[in-house]
Amino acid sequence: MGMLIKQNLVIEDPWITIDVVDRPVSNYPWFSLLPLLALSSNDQQPLPQTWLGAWFEPQVNLDVFSSQILSLPVLCIHVSDFHDGRAFSLAILLKRQIEYRGELRIAGNFLIDQMAILRDCGVDSFSLPDGSDVEHALFILNNTPRSNSTTTTLNKSGSL
Known about the structure:
CATH class: Alpha Beta
CATH architecture: 3-Layer(aba) Sandwich
Distance between the termini: 37 Å
């Protein structure tokens, strides 16, 4: 299991990221993060298990965020390139405009130094890459002043 920072605590991440869905969604164990497209194209309404989550890339089309997807307990933005600023915009859209109330997580290739800004954009937890300096990550989160830009809004295309 990887390490997760959630509510300023470092814990073992109980969620398993599934890269390829090769069986019915109902056959995955609880605490499985499945690709968003596999869940959004799922024929079973509602989803058969309440402890499934979804992961997706920052360039995801916002039209796939149905009420069923927004009812999942965890949505995870998977960052492939830390230079890609769309993760910040997407977090703001999900939390402030679409009003996702579950846990918004970031995973993949992000920088620890980006964590405080991501938190201010609405990210609730951080799945740390292997070899991350956990103490430095907590220092960044605990010692970076919070942003006052909680009223920032973006249009559906992700622009200010």
